[in-house]
Amino acid sequence: xxxxxxxxxxxxxxxxxxxxxxxxxxxxxxLALDAQIATALADxxxxxxxxxxDWTWEISLGQRGGDKANLFSIAVSIPLPxxxxxxxxxxxxARVAQIDQWVAQRAELIRSHIAERQTLRAEWSSHxxxxxxxxxxxxxxxxxxxxxxxxxxxxxxxxxxxxxxARRNExxxxxxxxxxxxxxxxxxxQLRYLLPDGSxxxxxxxxxxx
Length: 210
Known about the structure:
Outer membrane efflux proteins (OEP); 3 helices
C-alpha cells in the first residue's frame, strides 16, 4: 500500500504544500481554547442564574368543622439576598473578563497560525525553486565540467589539480542541494504541524522539473 505521505515516488514534502488556510479552527490549540471558553460561558450562566430569586409557592387547605368555612391559603416565599449580591456581581464580571481574554487569545492564535502558514509556504516555494535551479542547471553543468576536465587530463592538456577542483566544485553543489532539501523538509514538517488531523490531503500540487 502506498505511503499517503508519498506522491509520484517522491516524499510529500518535496512535491506539494497545503493549499490554503482552511481548518485552522481545528488546530488542537484552538480547540483547547474553545473548550475553555465553553466551560467559562456555562459557569457564567450558572452564576447569573444564581442571582435570580428562587420563588417558592405553598398552597394549603384547612377544613373546619361545624358551620365554619374551610380555610384556603397561598404562601409565597421570595429570598432577598443582600450580602451575596455584590459578590455574585464581582464573580460574574470576573468570568466575563476571562471569557473576553480567551476569545481575544483565540483570534490572535488563528491570525498567528495563518501568518505562519503563509510564511512557511513562501519558504517552501523558495527551497523548491532553488532545488530546480540546482537540478536543471548547476548540477548538470558541474558534472559536464568534471567530465570534460577528466577527459582533458587523460589527453594531457590539463593537470590533475584541475580535475580535483572540478570534482570538488561538483561535490560542493551536491552538498548545497542536500542542505536545501533538508530545509525544505523541515519547512514542510512545520507547516504540517499547523494543520489539523485529516486536512493534510489538501495540497497544492507542484510538478517537479526534470
